[in-house]
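Our consortium's second objective concerns turning raw sequence data into structural hypotheses that experimental partners can test. To show how far this objective has progressed, the report includes one record in full. It was chosen at random from the queue rather than selected for favorable results. The single chain below, 120 residues long, was entered without modification.
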Amino acid sequence: MRKGKENPVVKKGSTVRTALLEMTRTRLGATSVVDGKGRLMGFFTDGDLRRRLQKQTGLLEMKIESVMTRNPTRIHPGQSIHEALTLLKDGGFDNLPVVDARGRAAGILDERDLLAEGIA
């Protein structure tokens, strides 16, 4: 799991542009969207961006809440690697937000990290 500065997070009210910059900074294709208490509100990915760019003008200036995935699939730190792999595979995801018991964004799980460890 990537956490701290390696965990891409933007706050509610941020623009899509800000989310894109955060995703680029961390070199991950996703970012968690959190409220003022750090609780996960949504998730935004490169795929979301690509799909929306085809349909919407002015996307980069839109508020992230209007384009994020609400109530995304997530994982908790205590869940097993097997559970994580199942969620990634069954959902067709590259990344999963990791939340603590209070629902706060604790990190992000990237499939490339699992591959690098020989797990996936």
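The partners drew two points from this record. Helices lie at 16-26, 46-53, 81-91, 111-116. Residues 4-116 form a domain with the CBS-domain fold (CATH 3.10.580.10). Both points have been shared with the crystallography group to help prioritize constructs.
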